[in-house]
Specification:
Strand content: 15-25%
Radius of gyration: 27 Å
Number of helices: 15
CATH architecture of the largest domain: 3-Layer(aba) Sandwich
Number of strands: 23
Strand order of the largest sheet: 17-19-20-15-14-21-22
Distance between the termini: 93 Å
Structural class: alpha/beta
Largest sheet: 7 strands, mixed
CATH topology of the largest domain: Aldehyde Dehydrogenase, Chain A, domain 1
CATH class of the largest domain: Alpha Beta
Shape: globular
Length: 533
């Protein structure tokens, strides 16, 4: 690694990390601060398929030793990691603000999630429980054990560049697996530092191998293709539904079970009895936290007719108070910063055309924030990054913007008549990740959480947010049923081995030699009791 002066700190020139060695091979890519492109954050090489093969082979070799390391010892590495991350939290936070454009507050939450995850799974090293199962034969015992899968290929997105990788890396290595990780090219510097901190915590070389690069027709695609070469025994992915479907196909033909955490179009329902101020605040945060660049961001706010106009008025007032800007120059007071990259920004702009063509009503928002198209509550220079107005529409089911993930600071308001229609509309899209309902009636909350098609549901809270010990994941187009975080994620990185131990000294055949108890001749209890009925 080398460093050079840049506008808001040092620019890093970093390589791949394979087997504990830093390797510089491949054409150089660069990452600039999305809030100010004059700030160079990192230069890094794009890994080739041969680079990835090398990393996978190193991971295979490291697996032989790491998988035999006692699980409590592996957990001890994670206990060390939690302390290292806590010590370096402020450094990681500032780098995250520069590299992906998060606010300081949200970057702090991102890093804290990784700390919490490390703490949780450190103790799970002493709880990778199997079972002792009674046998139907004498002098025989039955057991189950969790076993690691092998080498895990991982691709992660840039919007949560420490938290989401921690959900994958930490349980994977705790369970005894090794990893080849391709992070988002929007967050390569953070990924490099994260792996270095794992190594400082005592993780042996080759357990986590980092290979930088792009996605389609580049490093990410080539990593997926390694499944066809038999070099990976598991794949974990966070990203778009379209890419997730393709990864699922490749994994399926290789009889691998992938972990797919995909997109969302998350409904937030506000019923007539809701605490209106609480609902407005929760809906606003669900819509505009991280500039809407979350898979759990609210996509549609569905409001009952009796309170629709009152909610709309207050929500628009709250939206108009949203503060946007350059977070590195304004550490406090911002709601969100820039788009992470040009691709996401261009996709977001498309939805303005969708809305006009489909007949949606634009209530607030004017596209990109520029000097010529100023946003009243912008802080900084809008010309040096890609920033978007907070945008609010009135929409209805069937419109593209109602059904498709937009991944930007945009929200739809949808008016409904009653709980039945609210639930119907909340499910009227392909996704099933997160959801929320605001109501004080327990029977309405009960119906919603039972009838919504989503992997996660909040009652009187936002659609966004996760805790390290609760399962995270979706259904339908939001995922394949896999779960991250909590004890449930261990299922994704282990397989069950059934073991029977024979102590009789002879061959005993279950079902055939089992000494099943035989019933006696039945007693006519009615006759005995004199029951003539």
């Amino acid at each position: 690694m080398q460093t050079y002066p840049s506008k808001y700190g040092h620019a890093l020139e970093i390589g791949h990390l394979i087997g504990g060695e830093e390797i510089f091979e491949g054409s150089l890519l660069e990452r600039r601060n999305p809030a100010d492109v004059a700030d160079l954050v990192a230069r890094f090489p794009q890994g080739s398929k041969e680079t990835l093969r090398k990393a996978a082979q190193v991971a295979q070799k490291a697996f032989q030793e790491w998988s035999r390391t006692p699980a409590p010892v592996r957990g001890g590495v994670l206990a060390n990691l939690a302390q290292v991350l806590l010590r370096e939290k402020s450094t990681l936070v500032r780098l995250m603000v520069r590299e992906v454009g998060k606010t300081f507050k949200e970057a702090g939450g991102d890093v804290q999630e990784a700390i919490d995850t490390a703490i949780f799974f450190a103790s799970e090293g002493r709880r990778l429980y199997g079972q002792t199962v009674p046998s139907e034969m004498k002098n025989k015992e039955l057991f189950t054990f969790r076993r690691p899968l092998g080498v895990v290929g991982m691709i992660t997105a840039g919007n949560f560049p420490i938290a989401v990788p921690s959900w994958k890396l930490i349980p994977a290595v705790l369970a005894g697996n090794t990893v080849v990780w391709k992070p988002s090219e929007d967050a390569s510097a953070l990924a490099y530092l994260f792996v270095k901190l794992f190594e400082e915590a005592g993780l042996p070389p080759g357990v986590i191998n980092l290979v930088h690069g792009g996605g389609k027709n580049a490093t990410g695609q080539w990593l997926v293709e390694l499944m066809d070469e038999g070099l990976l025994q598991k794949f974990a992915f966070t990203g778009s539904t379209a890419v997730g479907r393709w990864i699922g196909e490749v994994a399926g033909r290789n009889l691998l079970r992938p972990t797919l955490e995909l997109g969302g179009k998350n409904p937030l329902v506000v019923l007539r009895d809701a605490d209106l101020e609480l609902a407005v605040e929760g809906a606003w945060w669900s819509a505009f936290a991280t500039g809407g660049q979350r898979c759990t961001s609210a996509g549609n706010i569905i409001v009952e007719a009796p309170i629709y106009e009152a909610f709309k008025k207050r929500f628009l007032e709250r939206t108009e108070a949203t503060v946007v800007g350059n977070p590195i120059e304004h550490p406090t007071g911002l709601t969100y910063g820039p788009f992470m990259n040009q691709r996401l920004f261009e996709r977001w702009l498309e939805h303005y055309t969708w809305g006009r063509e489909d007949g949606a009503t634009l209530l607030f928002g004017q596209g990109r924030i520029t000097a010529a198209n100023p946003y009243p509550r912008f802080k900084g220079d809008p010309e040096v990054g890609l920033f978007g107005w907070p945008t609010v529409w009135e929409a209805r089911p069937g419109m593209r913007q109602f059904e498709q993930e937009i991944f930007g600071p945009t929200i739809n308001l949808v008016r409904v008549e009653g709980l039945d229609e609210a639930i119907q509309v909340a499910n009227a899209h392909p996704y099933g990740l997160s959801s929320a309902v605001y109501t004080n009636r327990r029977d309405w909350a009960y119906r919603f959480k039972n009838e919504i098609k989503a992997g996660m549901t909040s009652i009187n809270n936002s659609t966004v947010g996760a805790e390290a010990h609760l399962p995270f994941g979706g259904v339908r187009a939001s995922g394949n049923g896999a779960r991250e975080s909590g004890i449930w994620v261990i299922e994704e990185y282990t397989y069950w081995q059934a073991v029977n131990e024979e102590y009789s000294g002879r061959l005993q055949l279950a079902q055939m030699d089992t000494g099943y108890a035989q019933p006696k001749a039945p007693t006519d209890w009615a006759r005995v009791l004199g029951d003539s009925s």
